[in-house]
Write a structure and sequence with these properties.
This protein has 137 residues and is of the alpha+beta class. The chain contains six helices and three strands; from the N terminus they run ααααβββαα. The longest helix has 15 residues. The radius of gyration is 14 Å and the shape is globular.
């Protein structure tokens, strides 16, 4: 049986994370706050989601998904970001997430550097091409 995210487009996932972090729906706010206050329960120690939420001190909510999916929301602002890497790799989604978060000003250069050291490993023949669009819901 397929999970519900297979039925959603990236724009719908980004919109959901915007709602999840907007403080406009009590039941979603409770879920979001539980996630950012207990990031180890979301992904586990040393994982991208946990590290991002800890480094941003709960400002960002992050949850990885299967097959190269990464969703991030900014707490209290109702802004959401959804990334899908076509080949399903973690290294590409982490690199794309770090790059976009820095461009958006959601993380500092110092946090970007710490995350990159831990989650982006590129070899001399690695080529990262980004294609997609940024939409505001």
């Amino acid at each position: 049986m397929w999970g519900p995210t297979y039925c959603l487009e990236l724009s719908q996932l980004a919109h959901f994370y915007a709602l999840l972090t907007s403080d406009s729906h009590l039941h979603l706010t409770r879920i979001a706050r539980a996630m950012v206050h207990h990031p180890d329960c979301v992904a586990g120690k040393g994982q991208f989601d946990t590290e991002l939420m800890q480094l941003t001190e709960g400002e960002l909510l992050s949850k990885s998904g299967a097959e190269g999916l990464q969703c991030i929301g900014r707490m209290g602002e109702g802004l959401g970001l959804a990334i899908k890497v076509a080949d399903g790799t973690k290294r590409a989604k982490h690199a794309a997430a770090i790059h976009l978060l820095r461009q958006l000003g959601w993380i500092t250069p110092g946090i970007a550097e710490r995350l990159a050291e831990q989650f982006t490993v590129t070899g001399p023949y690695t080529r990262l091409d980004v294609s997609g669009e940024l939409t505001w819901a």
